[in-house]
Amino acid sequence: MFRNEREFTDFVAKALTGAGYKLQGEVPVGARYRLDLLAAKDGVRKGIEVKFTSRGILDDLTKSRALLRLPEVDEMYVCGPKVFVSEDALALAKSLGVGLLAVSDTGDLTWPVQSKVLDPARLSLGGGYMGVVVPGGEAVYNATVFNNGQKTAVNVEVSMLPAGAFSAPRKSKARARRAALEGSDKWEVTLACKVKNDTRPGKHPLMLSVKADNAPREDSTAHYEVRVENG
């Protein structure tokens, strides 16, 4: 019935449109992927990879496990002709948490396996530091950023907020960025800012924060004790 995968994809797109989905095709997601279809309905975004062979369906199920972690999709499916949705494909989909969409020759859609819905990215900030500093020196913080969610956090930024006793020259290491942090992963980075020369001895707070495009900001405070050398 279909001469190639492109014709089958067009057929699937028509069937989804008829079922009330709003579609986008060839959608860039993440840093290096492109979805065949992105289907939205009732506020849920379903990423769909379309394959025309049994082997292609199995291969894309494995690939789609990584796509499911990206923030651009809420659910992830591999679509194929109903006749090629085998027991192996059903078992693999269930084990990976990726959904299956089967299309009949008449355009009927069935969803034999539902996609898993992952917890959103959720960042927290920890780390360690030497609590005693001197005027004119550096306040160093060895930060560890955790993604406690399942979705990948995108454009992660961790930073110091220099104020009061602290300052950050333009080329300081008070801020660091990372393109992505996968779910259940961590990122270790060292931050540093300057202790002002005229800072008085005593304890001074330094705020630190972490945020991402798809995760709320989290703040914490480190307390540094300023001591005068030989004093």
Strand and helix layout:
Blueprint: H1 5-18, E1 22-29, E2 33-41, E3 44-50, H2 54-68, E4 75-81, H3 87-96, E5 99-103, E6 109-113, E7 123-128, E8 132-133, E9 138-147, E10 153-161, E11 166-167, E12 175-181, E13 186-195, E14 202-212, E15 215-226
Radius of gyration: 25 Å
Helix-strand string: HEEEHEHEEEEEEEEEEE
Strand content: over 45%
Q: On the 0-100 scale, what is the average pLDDT?
A: 93
Low-pLDDT stretches: none
Strand order of the largest sheet: 1-2-3-4-5-6
The secondary-structure class comes to alpha+beta
Q: Please tell me what the overall shape is.
A: rod-shaped
Estimate percent helicity.
10-25%
Descriptive overview:
This protein is α+β, with helices and mostly antiparallel strands. It starts with a helix and ends in a 5-residue tail after the last strand. The protein contains three helices and 15 strands. Helix 2 (54-68) runs parallel beside helix 3 (87-96). It has a six-stranded mixed beta sheet with strand order 1-2-3-4-5-6, with helices on both faces. The longest helix is centred in the N-terminal third of the chain and has 15 residues, at 54-68. Strand 5 (99-103) and strand 6 form a beta hairpin. It has helices spanning 5-18, 54-68, 87-96; strands at 22-29, 33-41, 44-50, 75-81, 99-103, 109-113, 123-128, 132-133, 138-147, 153-161, 166-167, 175-181, 186-195, 202-212, 215-226.
Essential attributes:
231 residues; 3 helices; 48% strand; rod-shaped
Short description:
This protein is of the alpha+beta class. It has three helices and 15 strands.
